[in-house]
């Protein structure tokens, strides 16, 4: 076989030479191996500009050429304007052919090819001879002595093709067809040969076939008469192309018409892919530029023009460095090309210059395109203008590191700056101060004047603070009304005090609003100093915050320096806070009950439910310690509902056991009363537990009236209307507004134990107790005294008309099982 006998190196050289000649002399060239014994053709080389249609025309023309009479075979010019040079081996056997054609540029003439010019024929002959000389030196071994022209059986030859091939004479009678035609038309050769199209097909199909024959005859060359979609024997969709060509004898007289139909599905698919790729190329949002192996631009798409401003004509043949911005050093491009040559691809960001001079950033991917010999033929660069992306990144960076309202550094940026300064201070053995600033009662500004005015004040404050500080100090806004200042390189606490005084002076001038209204503010500040108060930014900021809270506790409008005791106090509070969350989740609380007695005869009249907490690690924790913490961290609502439900369940249990009592009183925190759904929750718990409302009493404090008293009064009336008794706990220690007291739907007043403790020895407490009793009776309320511990206290209260009492004199708070003596059984139940 010729292909196996020719070296791959020689084939590559011929391929390159064919490409060069084809481009230089406007020729389409194919080099085909001819296997006479197997009746087959195989293309070994084909010029780059050759189309599938042209290649097929070459093979059809070659088939006609070598099937002609022997004295005509050796001629070089076929009737279809395809120039053939036949090549033989050393024994004279036909082994190959080089085929040449020149495209027809005259669109008014339907011919596919035009005759070769004299120079083209000369070049074709020279190339063919060069190939023939090489092939004549090849030793193919023993070859059968086959006569090229006379021993080739036309029927066997055309039967070797999968394509449908048939021949008609000038009268339109079929004189030959191959096996593929028989299978496709489902007719035998005997049923086809000797018949015309009207004999074989319906009139419409027959006329179409005859029209195709006439077109080939009239043009005198090969023509494509139809392309259509069909279904093969396996019901798969295929694309069929029908080609017809005139056959002439040695005198050039027309003798017959050759027809061939072949499946061009792959060609169609490739064509569609090319069209799709072209559309994608032109309509892509990204810019695309293609260069040859030397880096010269061969093509661009519309997006390239839109992005850079350069038209196609302005850049073709030029190097992409016309876009160079000058921002990148030579070493940058050396690394780029090294990566591209080694890996075949490079991706990154490059700053380029538009036609009008503007510099812009682009994200770009450059890929090398290799041929079959792994040699780079083209470079393709796909890029996107990321100017907007860069701008957005800058905005996001600004949002990430700066407060959007005041444009001051935010917490993240401040921490980063502090960490840098700490490294410097550590090396230089210098001190550094962190000052934490919180505006006093700023929430009142937002609530009364609105958040817009509040924001205006914060912006003005940030400007004033910036002016008051030096260029070396760093001011940041952490959140809301919290600011923080870093004072680097301090020499002593005096320099810190001086800076604090400058900051405090900022608040001496009022803040003037748009409506000419003025607002005065104060601030509480805490100071922590590196390295004595912390050696990292977290501990310094935390300790400065602790010092600021200490300043607030000391009366606000003040400042305080951090001390070690603040940290210990904060750590203990954090432990307690964590344990409190776990106690609520695990229901580690329990209730004890302190009896209430009628002073007149000491008969039991009810109990006060009191919460207790025993933590497995921290031990017993007093309610005076964890109740304020629960209010501070927002757990008092859940704890209060748990206490109410547990007390109601205990009351139901006592009633079920046949025990009797008047009411169980449950304390209600001020924050509970402020919830809109408190009444609904009480009603829900009573329904779930089944405790009658006549056995429940709620104790509220005076402080609950400080927030929205009208709503509180409304809710208390709803609770009273349900049959729940209401009492004021710790009367005289809180709000003590007689105006609201007379409007409250309450049943009892409880004298706080702070007034009972020194009775009857303290004249003031004695007078207060008498006044509370008299006031309560005047309002038709029962009076109960808590914290009664001595008989003297009890006698005094009894003489002055106090109705009820509770305290250690009668009983400490106890677990339910220890209260049997205070729970008489219902009559008739033993």
TrEMBL record:
Residues 430-564 form the GGDEF domain. InterPro entries: Biofilm_reg_signaling (IPR052155), Diguanyl_cyclase/Pdiesterase (IPR012226), EAL_dom (IPR001633), EAL_sf (IPR035919), GGDEF_dom (IPR000160), Nucleotide_cyclase (IPR029787), PAC (IPR001610), PAS (IPR000014). It comes from the Bacteria. Residues 280-330 form the PAS domain. Residues 573-827 form the EAL domain. It holds the Pfam family PAS_4. Residues 224-276, 346-398 form the PAC domain. SMART domains: EAL, GGDEF, PAC, PAS. PANTHER family: BIOFILM ARCHITECTURE MAINTENANCE PROTEIN MBAA (PTHR44757:SF2), DIGUANYLATE CYCLASE DGCP (PTHR44757). NCBIfam families: GGDEF, sensory_box. This is GGDEF domain-containing protein. It comes from Shewanella saliphila.
